[in-house]
Amino acid sequence: MKVLVINAGSSSLKYQLFDMPEGKVLAKGLCECIGIPGGTITHKRPGKDNYKTETPLDNHEVALGWVLKLLADPELGVIADIAEIEAVGHRIAHGGEKLRESCLIDDEVIKYLYSIVKLNPLHGPPAIAGIEGCRKLMADVPMVGVFDTSFHSTMPEHAYIYPLPYELYEEKSIRRYGFHGTSHRYVANRVAELMGKPIEELKIITCHLGNGSSITAVNKGKVVDTSMGFTPQEGILMGTRSGTIDPTIVTYLVSEGMSAADVEKMLNKQSGFLGVSGKSSDARVVCDAAADGDKRSQLALQILYYGVQKYIGAYAAAMNGLDALVFTAGIGENDRDLRQAVCRDMDYFGIALDEQCNATCPRGEEVDLSAADASVRTWVIPTDEEFMIAKDTARLADR
Ligand code: ADP
């Protein structure tokens, strides 16, 4: 079964065509600068040269039109006809309170997604544009929505309700939702498979550390807490986001004359690695500057390491134990110094790395990094959100 996975951002659209159930990637690519000048498409097929073209991409529908054309192109394509695509899976950042599991997309679902755009103003509209575009171009093909929030919907009330006036939850849907759920779900299930145990018997902490970062506690297969909250702003220090701060800093800055929009911009785009180091939002640049002796870059890294350690401690307490710790995403998968720094002095929790294994662990592989006598198994597992989306899509569309 050929399944197309779409991940639509505000000015970009990523795609992957899978052959399911094997999960073989037939082609993938990226459309950039949608709705702004400089439209570019990069189309990749395993074992073949990449194809790149520059063309105006006025909107997501135009971009999707290109994707379908390329996939079925006699020279560049991987299928003879777009009719071979039997289902489309859409990555959707926010499922609100109602969309707690991946589901087939119908008019009702689209209506609900429109109703929660307010909760997700950055990612909601492009996701809907991707769905609407597919509906026009592939009218009869079943579509499935896979939500970043849904894995977290099992959190107990005491983890998702903020200690604010309760009416804010009832009337304005203000609560912890959590994000990166598809990634946390993938690596949590994968670590259980790799450890040869049912997920229902494990206490797992998954650390998704990339440009955006979040940490999740998964007890017996169910999320009990996660670091991102009402928005992806909460939690640990990220590329340009502050993570958790004293909320009074916001009102203080507003009282000092800063506009609410500027405060939001500062928290979202000018904080985190970028704000503290003053160098970059990119972990690699910050790591290099720190290695060259730059004090603020060293500080930014220390804040991140300390933040990750605090969540591990809190979540081990929340689950009354820990069996597996997983690092994933750009930083988690590639930054051995981070893994070493986070796991150092954590023997109280039973966490200890085999330093040699951590230092030499090859990129892109699933590796148990733990010291032989550690009671907690610490893994690096490359995430694969697209495969998870394709899996859900094939399952739901095949009914
Ligand atoms: P996104 O959240 O956009 O999906 P990724 O998961 O791709 O992001 O992670 C991007 C981050 O991973 C960047 O900060 C990048 O610098 C970092 N990263 C990638 N490779 C390395 C590396 N070898 N060492 C440290 N950080 C890395």
What would you say this structure looks like, in words?
The strands form 2 sheets. The protein has an 8-stranded mixed sheet, sandwiched between helices. A 6-stranded mixed sheet has the order 11-10-9-12-14-13, sandwiched between helices. It starts with a strand and ends with a helix. The relative contact order is 0.11. The protein has 15 helices and 14 strands. It folds into 2 domains: 2-147, ATPase, nucleotide binding domain (Nucleotidyltransferase, domain 5, 2-Layer Sandwich), CATH 3.30.420; 198-385, Nucleotidyltransferase, domain 5, CATH 3.30.420. It has 399 residues and is α/β, with parallel strands linked by helices. The mean pLDDT is 96. The radius of gyration is 21 Å and the shape is globular. Strand 1 and strand 2 (12-19) form a beta hairpin. It has helices at residues 60-71, 107-115, 124-137, 157-160, 167-172, 181-195, 248-255, 260-269, 272-277, 283-291, 295-319, 329-334, 336-343, 355-360, 385-397, and strands at 2-8, 12-19, 24-32, 40-44, 51-54, 85-92, 103-104, 143-147, 203-209, 213-219, 222-226, 324-328, 367-368, 377-380. The structure holds adenosine-5'-diphosphate (ADP). Adenosine-5'-diphosphate (ADP) is lined by residues 210-212, 239, 282-284, 287, 329-331, 334-335. Adenosine-5'-diphosphate binds next to helix 10 and helix 12.
Summarize the topology.
Elements: E1 2-8, E2 12-19, E3 24-32, E4 40-44, E5 51-54, H1 60-71, E6 85-92, E7 103-104, H2 107-115, H3 124-137, E8 143-147, H4 157-160, H5 167-172, H6 181-195, E9 203-209, E10 213-219, E11 222-226, H7 248-255, H8 260-269, H9 272-277, H10 283-291, H11 295-319, E12 324-328, H12 329-334, H13 336-343, H14 355-360, E13 367-368, E14 377-380, H15 385-397
Parallel strand pairs: 1-6, 6-8, 9-12, 12-14
Antiparallel strand pairs: 1-2, 2-3, 3-4, 4-5, 7-8, 9-10, 10-11, 13-14
Helix pairs in contact: 1-3, 10-11, 11-13
